[in-house]
Write a structure and sequence with these properties.
nine-stranded mixed beta sheet; about 15% strand; FAD/NAD(P)-binding domain; alpha+beta; four-stranded mixed beta sheet; about 20% helix; globular; 17 helices
Length: about 700
Amino acid sequence: MSQDDTTRRKAPVARSAPDLKVEDGPKGISRRGLFAAGAAAGVSSMALAAGRKAEAASHDDGAMTWHYEADVVVLGAGCTGLPAAIRANDLGASVLVIDQNFDAGGRMLHSGSWVSLGGGDPVQERDRAGESDAEGFITVGAQVPEGALEDSVDLLFRDVTDWSIVDQQGYGYYRFNNPDQHRGWAENCPATRQFMMDNYIRFTRINGTHFGGGVSRARAAYCFLNLGPVTDIKAGTITAEDAGVADPERSSPMCPVQQSIGASEANPMSVRGGGIMSRCLEYSAREKGVRFMFNRKMTELIQDDNGAVIGVKAVYTPRFDPETGAQLHSLWSAGNIEETRETIYIRARRGVVVGTGGHAGNPHFRSQFYPRMNEPWFPTSGWALLGEDGRAADASGIIAGIKVGASLDGLHQNLGRRTYHIATRLGVRDAYTSMYPGHPTFPFRKAAGFSIGQAGFEHLVAVNQMGQRFFNEMRLGDEPLDPRYPGGITTGTPDSWDEHNVADWRNCRSAWIREMYDYSAGVDAAIQINEGSTAPDYYSGPIWAIFDEAAVERGQFPLRPPFVSTENGCFFKADTLEELAEMIYDGNPYQRVRPYHLVDTIATWNGYVDDGVDPDFERGQADAPMHRIDRPPYYAAAIMVVWHDSYGGLRLNRHCQVLDMEGRPIPGLYAGGEASGGGQMHGLGRATVHGYIAGTQVVKGGIIGETAR
């Protein structure tokens, strides 16, 4: 089904939006007529209004020139932005969402949709009572014990601020969470779950807790729809083509990542995933009259003379298919504003909500937390979907906040779960998730990559930009366990959930840490200075999986389209190792030096295989069988270090107001999700609740001590 095919996909129909204005329109028509004409022309019914005096783009008389105006301007159409926009709209505000990408969803589209909330939320209570959902879609029974669903806001808050919990690397996982922010978050979890259900999100049974969601209770459920002949968000159905499950090697314009079968969590005909979660929220937002302006990046927050944020400057950022040159457009268009001027100014009468995502794709910003992650070759997850270098998780919202006086929070928490890690999907730069042909951004990847899992490293050696091995390949992909439900040693806690004691010193006693400590430094070795690193940046360069034809046969690597491409700088094939080294140097723009040691490295490795021992990195037969690399052709596939979640960003209070360096709210400025800091928590649960709170408070105004109800 093509992106424009509406015969099997019901699109949202936008309602009239309240009090939205544009600078100018067709002459000789009323404001009501402007709305109709503007909708037909792809222009909204927003109108010019004079703002306070500002330095940027002023008339000769000093008055600010506003091209658009709305009560609430939301920056980013993702996991924070969509809930914020819907909530503010529900409370009667006019809402304009701008996003630098061409479509809604952000990184949420790439997610698994496992949303961890809790505090006695409606899905916990439903499952605890043994009930199905209102539509009767869920046919499976409860997935966790009844006691694991008996939750409260107080217990949730204590869980996510528990000083005593550490992970496998001995890091105080919840210890550094901002308490005021997390109290507000916990208080709003039940309401946010209901809010999402009221906006077309169907939740499966709760079957665990996502990282950062606490040890004491089960709190996470997936978002799902049922397979059907038509994609109808209201009816709860999606076609196999739209879900990406009709063809194992195709994605869809609706879901860039194939959705997963939800038979064990909902029913045999259900599918779950981030595409479903994103599109359900987007559908509701469009249906309710929220307006969207895509291809538009905020570059500046504008303040009045009193320091209140009153609007934004935004520039035009269209994307074009790298193969055809055609401009990319959103899946749905109801409520879109087609604005192509290079620079515009948008006034926000009540406030601005920053939901622009994190800093994971900005090497300069993220290297503040880990200097060796300054290597620009290593991307963030969803790199192709979000807009490649300079656009994907670019820290733009955080940086804009800093420029208007915002303080930061939780900067060190990036080092907690070690969100930067080595992906086991090879041969593609955007290696965190798969994407197949069928989605408009696939041409930026050119390949899906092929996943080998940690066990697949048996068949190869990993080398740095100089062609040298740097670590035991069988431990490259290891990540420390994060402490969460159901607890116990498999999640890094001494006791299971039903025996766990919150804030008990025994959870971090030295004897326990010695028993469970298991930190693998593979990713740290991969990005360290090597012979090819030069001042002042000392870039580590790409890392490569080197293997031969025998490995392809043993590992059953699918070295064909759409899994690999010889045009993306991530996959090479040659008859000799010498030729392979030259192809790597010539074919990857971030390979700054020739891999001089590659031939010698493989010769040395083959000798270690013959001896059955690896004296350099102690990889031996006990880890996995060792294999010679001596049967041409030879292959090189990129191994990617991916920085996934962002921790550390704008400092918030419980109302998601951005705080200045004195701890005072900056009037008119709200934020959430990965644009914020102070929380060691997975993105979906964190961002959706922040969006709900921000969308409430930007309309009602944050009052200290009140929750967002």
